[in-house]
Known about the structure:
The structure holds two protein chains of two kinds.
Chain A: H1 10-23, H2 41-55, H3 61-66, H4 70-83
Helix pairs in contact in A: 1-2, 1-4
Chain B: H1 13-16, H2 21-30, E1 33-37, E2 44-48, H3 51-59, E3 64-65, H4 93-104, H5 107-111, H6 114-125, E4 134-135, H7 136-140, H8 143-152, H9 159-170, H10 183-207, H11 213-218, E5 221-222, E6 225-226, H12 229-244, H13 249-258, H14 262-269, H15 274-285, E7 290-295, E8 299-301, E9 304-306, E10 311-315, H16 316-319, H17 354-371, E11 372-377, E12 382-383, E13 392-394, E14 396-401, H18 402-407
Parallel strand pairs in B: 2-10
Antiparallel strand pairs in B: 1-2, 3-7, 4-14, 5-6, 7-10, 8-9, 11-14, 12-13
Amino acid sequence: xxxxxxxxxxxxxxxxxxxxxxxxxxxxxxxxxxxxxxxxxxxxxxxxxxxxxxxxxxxxxxxxxxxxxxxxxxxxxxxxxxxxxxxxxxxxxxxxx
Amino acid sequence: xxxxxxxxxxxxxxxxxxxxxxxxxxxxxxxxxxxxxxxxxxxxxxxxxxxxxxxxxxxxxxxxxxxxxxxxxxxxxxxxxxxxxxxxxxxxxxxxxxxxxxxxxxxxxxxxxxxxxxxxxxxxxxxxxxxxxxxxxxxxxxxxxxxxxxxxxxxxxxxxxxxxxxxxxxxxxxxxxxxxxxxxxxxxxxxxxxxxxxxxxxxxxxxxxxxxxxxxxxxxxxxxxxxxxxxxxxxxxxxxxxxxxxxxxxxxxxxxxxxxxxxxxxxxxxxxxxxxxxxxxxxxxxxxxxxxxxxxxxxxxxxxxxxxxxxxxxxxxxxxxxxxxxxxxxxxxxxxxxxxxxxxxxxxxxxxxxxxxxxxxxxxxxxxxxxxxxxxxxxxxxxxxxxxxxxxxxxxxxxxxxxxxxxx
Lengths: 97, 408
């Protein structure tokens, strides 16, 4: 289990898996700061690409760099997915690719 | 954190009152490898002030590593970019990683941007072109983006924000740029916002490539492989930070020295001295006044033993006034030759943007001389408050428009 929390959503879980892959640590708390876990700007930039691919939406790097927690990112990803025209996001509901 | 002594080189206040050339001269003559305790933060570092020693520290990467931080503000903390960004990486990896940027910033690819850079420079001088007073330092603060913007394909409206973020990341001690939380949050915020900005931009360029440098970098291959997105972003970051806090201070320092002096007219009247004058302006200003290294094994500098692991700070700005290399070092001599100044550093880490800097300076001085037959400082000058960047924030000037001179 990658996410330490009673209530998990699939976006949170998939995000945590992306973080774990980049940071090589687990578990990851919902409010852990990406940079405090050892991430740096280059890793964050690569993570942005991972998020694009995984969720099929483009999230502004501002969230990733300035509010780098699973909770914050989940919110913007969910908003972006909801705002995207259906069928164009390529998101994979319910789990990994 | 200042102890207030005239010799405390860690005190940014020392620099806001003027560059400490007197302090450096004294050190060069009497104490060329001087131990500077780092007031308030513990530790300390060697202050290296002679040309020969500065050159050796920068050149000899087998004795002095860049991988534990090269900026004094990283003293004792290590560099988060170690081994990842060019400035914080030793050869041989450094030399390979530098290839894309070096190719992109070579003389030839830059030439096609001349017209656009020149137009931008004309706009910077426009506020004073009719003889009205204007702040030359404020105008020149935009010069790096006037030069880089067309090359990276940056929207003009983003220039002021990018300059501000770059200043937060390089002149974090200056109250004008510091955030209420202090030095650390300022550095962190500046750094992260720049990365975020370029992350979004690089992503957009990967989707819609253009003829700008970011698109070119994204398609560059080293050893048969495309460089990573992170590396493209990091190169953009380096170009912004490498130029924003440094380039403006070359023309500003030159004008502060030459305003009201006959040298301005002499230089303007001799186009063949454009390049030697620019090299002298570079020597004179040396905006990146020092770089740090760490000794990898015990070494001697000017007879002083430096222990393994010691921080060594090479003062380029002092080396560039060393009378052993530059006769009459405190005279701004537009005819100075040879002029082997260290303003761009020396060796493997020699400024990768030097061609762009020289191009921008050539266009700037040409435009300046074409616009004003003479120039005067007309108000109070204000310097940067920084232990790293030697420069000016406010330099009110007024020029005499050449048009008016010709007509009347």
